[in-house]
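Appendix B, example 12.
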Amino acid sequence: MLRRLVPAALIAATIATPALAQNRADFRWDKALPAGNEVSIHNINGDITVIPSTSGKVEVVGIKRGSSQYFDRIKADVQQTSRGIVICVLDNSADSYCDDRGMHSDSRNDRGSHDRDWNNVSMSLEVAVPTNLVVSASSVSGDVSITGATGDVRANSVSGSLKLDRLRASSVSANTVSGDIEVSIQEFTGRGDLKFNTVSGDVTLDLPRQLDADLSMTTVSGDINSDYPLTLGNSRMNRRSIDARIGGGGRHLDFNTVSGSVKLRAGR
């Protein structure tokens, strides 16, 4: 009987997580934005999770983690710009600010104290975004997950994995220094380029079966595997790199890793 109950309990806990997160949120913000606006998210220490909005508004929930005595040392801020909004997590000092270029700190003093603060506290961001807005998300130390985004999608992390799922995208850019990249694109909505780079980690792309692209794939230490027929032309292929055409060619598909494998999969 216990074996039957455990999966159900886990499922219930998973379903309840967003509501629980909102109940214990340390930061909340919501607003409806015009179609085509950009939602740009910047974090220093903490994960970023982006999901489709069901309310037609951008909804931001910030949750602090770590030692509670440091909770007052960090804050979240939302700034409106001519292009949309910028969401930042900052240290709570007078010289830290958020603008259309992201987060900044003019302080050159007491840097060691700020670093100690970030070692003891983090803030995860959960952001619900309507599908008619553009998304970019970046964390210095944390994973970035984006689900159901459309248009031009960008994700970056220095230390963390990137997972972009169920995209309807024109262009995609994903870069991480230490972490894996997993991307699933259901449909292309434009002719933009696709660029994926990681220094230490694997890169896996799931793309529509009907694909036209000019492909550049490189890896220093790892394997390369592609489901798509590749036309080499005058280009050369070896175990570490390939320049080739998929279908009729067109958009650029740059697919690079230093230490890790690369996989290019054809969707169903």
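Confidence is low (pLDDT under 50) at residues 1-20. The chain has two domains: 25-142, 146-268.
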